[in-house]
Amino acid sequence: MVHAAKQEYIDRLIGECLSEDGDALEFNGRFIGDEGVEALVHSDKLGQIENLDLTKNSLTHKSAIYLAECGKFKKLKRLYIGDNSISDQGAAAIAGADFAENLAYLDLRFNSIDPTGGMAIARSEKFKRLQVLILQENQVDDDVIIALAKSPAFANLRKLNLYRTGLTLKGIKTLAKSKVLHQLKYLNIARNYLYLDAAKALAATKTLTNIETLLMYDTGIGDEGVKVIMQSPSFAKLKTFRVT
After folding, report:
1. Prediction pTM value
2. 157-196 pLDDT, tens digit each
3. Who's near 123: CB < 8 A, 6+ residues apart?
4. In angstroms, what CA-CA distances link 213 with 1, 56, 132, 187, 202?
5. How confident is the model over 49-65, as pLDDT tens digits?
6. Cβ atoms of 208 and 182 closer than 8 Å
7. Domain annotation for the chain: domains and CATH numbers
8. Exposed, middle or buried, 155 (CB in 10 Å: 0-12/13-18/19+)?
9. What secondary structure letter does DSSP report for 100?
10. Are 150 and 123 a contacting pair, CB within 8 Å?
11. Intra-chain end-to-end CA distance of the chain, in Å
């Protein structure tokens, strides 16, 4: 149960942070905690929200469950919930939420999500409208990325951020052959365990041919790997290629 003082504070905060047309709620860095989200979902001002930013709010899986069970986010399209600790249970709650069917943008970065939670996301059939998925700094590992690359639910992805997610050659091989992710324009696979063989596998792709931005910095692909990518006819549309 939410304390009256907390409910009053959140109601006041909504008044301050809700956009004039009521379609965006910006709570970034407010540190409202789980009790704050519990109070938030009691509000009668959530029905028009398309953009909800809960980045850096000291949230756990409880907050993700509150959001998923709320039922008021009928128009939600973009959810930013990075820099929290929703963990596997929270990821599973979001993967099963009714609002997931309308999401175009989902930012889950830095959330202590492991393979179990990652697989809940990858196996969900609700993300058919999703265009941007950010899994950065969650150790979901190869099997999750492989499942995602094979799931038709992610066919509309344009941007995929897998920065420091435990990706290795095993995952790269499936990504490179993915017929699902052919619309990708942005791919961040930096700070993963990738070497020359991964660069060669990626360069041989016949499906990821719309990539315009490719981030592979802090990997071990070396100069030869850079050369292989740059000379690949599959990356004819590449505009930004960041390596170190």
Report:
1. 0.97
2. 999 999 999 999 999 999 999 999 999 999 999 999 999 9
3. 95, 147, 151
4. 46, 27, 14, 6, 14
5. 999 999 999 999 999 99
6. yes
7. 167-244 (3.80.10.10)
8. middle
9. G
10. no
11. 51
